[in-house]
Amino acid sequence: MEIGDWTATPDLNEIYREVRAAGLESNLAELEAFGFTTIPNALSAEQVSAMRDRILEISESRLGKSLDLETEADHAEVAFIPYLLFKDPIFKQAVVNPKTLPLITYLLGRHCILSSLGCHLKGPGGRGLLLHSDTGNGAPDPFTPYSVVANCNYALTDYTEAAGSLAMVPGSHRHFRQPTRWESGLDGNQRYEHVIPIEVPAGTAIVWHGNTWHGSFPRKVPGLRVNLSSYYCREFIQPQEDYRRNVPEGFLDGETDARLARLLGADLIHGWTDEGPLKLYARRREDAAERRPRTWQS
Ligand SMILES: O=C(O)CCC(=O)C(=O)O
Ligand SMILES: [Fe+2]
Q1: How many domains does the chain have?
Q2: DSSP 8-state symbol, 267
Q3: Which of 96, 101, 149, 266 could pair covalently with 261 via S-S, beta carbons 3.0-4.6 A apart?
Q4: Could you tell me if 281 and 220 lie in one domain?
Q5: Looking at the DSSP assignment, which residues form a beta bridge with residue 78?
Q6: Each residue of 58-79: pLDDT tens digit?
Q7: Angstrom distance (rounded) from CA 68 to CA 29
């Protein structure tokens, strides 16, 4: 049908027309029905190899060791390589890709923002990345039917289950909760019965609703699985006023506990740059274990 300028759906009319014009209407149907969709050739072969090479260079310097895409055996498990956007102009192309952005805009609205751009670099071994919903990263159950976060995962190496591909649970965006620990396994007798591997060639993008349960399989062969995770969120997740970077010197003097500091963002994890999130998570756990009040990050 022709989409009019209907007053009941003012944003949606235009966003839907953009989805249709980009040839993504069946992807939108898949997203609605199953909570995810795959877009073949979202990146060209040149874009894939340029992004992958750059990520490998950045990872080598970050991890302090040399890495081999084809034969790597030492780098086990998953390392998150954060904060890629400003590392090379090529990464802009992933974030504003006309083959994926209309679907992200459909899920999160026109004023959505980039939340992070990183790589889950995976070598052989380990448990993989257990099933989870990205919405649950800060939101309690039950989740909302609409997406508050959404992900676009680019395969920069071929995805097969043995190579450590993305894992999905079709339809799980309608569970409105995180998987339990009995529902989150990927391997051996811990494997969740409804999980499927997303087996696609490099250059494919996989876009999913923030609620959808996903993870990635352990890699069973030598070499590296490289992805690029372009992760977006709705604008309202941001505080309205920016306190965190603007607390005046001395403002918290005399506060006897950390509550006010925390309200102003003292122990927020989001907002990381090159250091990535892991140290911040570890410090928050330590503070909780020792019941140590933290007044501001140093
Ligand atoms: O390893 C993967 O590709 C999955 C990464 C993931 O869970 C995410 O980007 O939210
Ligand atoms: Fe995730």
Answers
A1: 2
A2: T
A3: 266
A4: no
A5: 122
A6: 999 999 999 999 999 988 889 9
A7: 39
pLDDT of residue 293: 57
What share of the chain in percent tops pLDDT 90? Answer: 80
Q: Measuring from atom 1 of ligand 1, which residue has the nearest CA?
A: 216
Specify the ligand 1 atom closest to the Cα of 164. Answer: 1
Amino acid at 195: V
Bridge partners, residue 168, by sequence: 196, 214
Pocket mutation for ligand 1, best pick of 78, 127, 135, 151 (most atoms within 8 Å of C-beta): 151
Question: Does 204 contact ligand 1 (Cβ within 6 A)?
Answer: no
Given 235, 258, 288, which residue is the final one in a domain? 235
Per the listing, tokens 């990183």 go with: 118
Mean of all residue pLDDT scores within the chain: 94
d(CA 78, CA 216): 10
Q: Give pTM, 2 decimals.
A: 0.94
3-state SS, residue 34: helix
Q: Same domain for 82 and 130?
A: yes
For residues 254 and 228, state if they share a domain: no
Q: In this structure, which residue's CA is closest to atom 10 in ligand 1?
A: 134
Q: Residues 267, 227: one domain?
A: no
CA distance 221 to 70: 9
Does residue 157 share a domain with residue 56?
yes
Closest ligand to 217 CA? 1
Domain around 252: 248-298
